[in-house]
Specification:
This protein is an alpha+beta fold and 324 residues long. The radius of gyration is 19 Å and the shape is globular. The chain starts with a strand and ends with a helix. The strands form 3 sheets. The protein has a 5-stranded antiparallel sheet. The chain has a 3-stranded parallel sheet with strand order 1-3-2, with helices on one face. Strands 9-10-11 form a 3-stranded antiparallel sheet, with helices on both faces. It contains 13 helices and 11 strands.
């Protein structure tokens, strides 16, 4: 691991000042992802700005839903009574991820920024456009069982590994960001990027910006939700495919729908048009199967991950059946 400087921030303004004054600097809070990346020399910051002491751990009710501070621990959010009663989809997704020890350290903001688990990204002896732009994508033509089937590009076929991100996308959550140019709000559905020509950029965050909170709005229609995760073993494994589903059903007819997929793309995969087309239709298997096919339309598998298309379709249908 490369030697680095370490500084602490006590207020958000201090954090923005410190990150802007140090070359090649990174924020660190729980460090459950960044420290591993530094050990593997995938990330080599000159300075770490410790933000773990910032007053951003709140989980509080607002006029429109709930606000969760960026430094709230995953375990605290999953166990919070307000989250469990009003947004069980988020609690379920958090509990499906990592181990209890990691959830006790990982933060909401850090989870939003969690980087891919692509083998080639972690192996510095292999080409990876995300780690070393212009070097190529080792997964294309390599071993690509866990990789993307949707939204990829010739530059990168990595996937977003976070369970939480999938749930937040389906919940219409909004990321609150502070930076040198002021504050801004970005829906989670727009926060993560597809790889395109710049796969090294995972999100829309600008240099030296800081995530301060996540707002989760109360749904307009009461409904039920389910997070279904398919993985290679029963626990402590990343999703091969996952589905965050929420339906409001009245008299057997769908009144509101939210669907987001994980493990299949560079970001949580959600198509609002598919959700809108579900409204007014019967909550039955034929409707669910049609939606699953629409969500997977345009999938482009590689040598080792073609099975994900059928698996994702079946997982979507199962999740919707469970909710309905």
């Amino acid at each position: 691991m490369k030697a680095f400087d370490y500084v602490q921030a006590n207020q958000p303004a201090d954090a923005l000042r410190l990150i802007g004054s140090a070359p090649s600097s990174r924020f660190i809070a729980g460090g459950t992802n960044l420290v591993d990346l530094m050990k593997y020399e995938v990330e080599n910051p000159d300075t770490l700005v410790d933000i773990s002491r910032l007053p951003m751990t709140q989980i509080e009710k607002t006029a429109t839903g709930v606000r969760i501070g960026a430094l709230a621990r995953n375990s605290d959010v999953a166990a919070n009574a307000l989250i469990k009663s009003q947004f069980p989809l988020l609690s379920d997704a958090l509990l499906a991820g990592a181990s209890p020890q990691l959830r006790n350290m990982a933060t909401m903001g850090g989870n939003l920024l969690q980087r891919t688990r692509c083998y080639y990204f972690y192996d510095t002896s292999q080409p990876c456009n995300k780690r070393a732009p212009g070097s190529g994508c080792g997964a294309i033509g390599g071993y690509n069982r866990i990789h993307a089937i949707l939204g990829a590009s010739p530059q990168c076929i990595a996937t977003n590994p976070s369970d939480m991100n999938v749930a937040l996308s389906a919940l219409d959550a909004v990321v609150q960001i502070s930076g040198p140019n002021g504050n801004r709000s970005v829906p989670v559905i727009d926060f993560h990027r597809l790889p395109g020509e710049v796969p090294q950029k995972d999100t829309i965050l600008e240099p030296n910006e800081l995530i301060v909170a996540v707002d989760v709005p109360t749904p307009k229609n009461a409904g039920k939700s389910h997070y279904l995760k398919v993985r290679d073993r029963a626990s402590y494994a990343f999703a091969i495919v996952s589905v965050a589903a929420r339906l409001a059903v009245e008299g057997g007819v769908i009144r509101e729908a939210r669907l987001a997929l994980g493990g299949v793309a560079h970001k949580p995969w959600r198509i609002v048009d598919v959700e809108n087309q579900l409204v007014g239709k019967p909550a039955n298997d034929a409707t669910f199967q049609a939606a699953a096919k629409q969500l997977l339309a345009g999938a482009q598998p590689h040598e080792h991950n073609a099975f994900k298309i059928k698996l994702a379709q079946s997982t979507i249908v199962r999740a919707l059946q469970t909710v309905a």
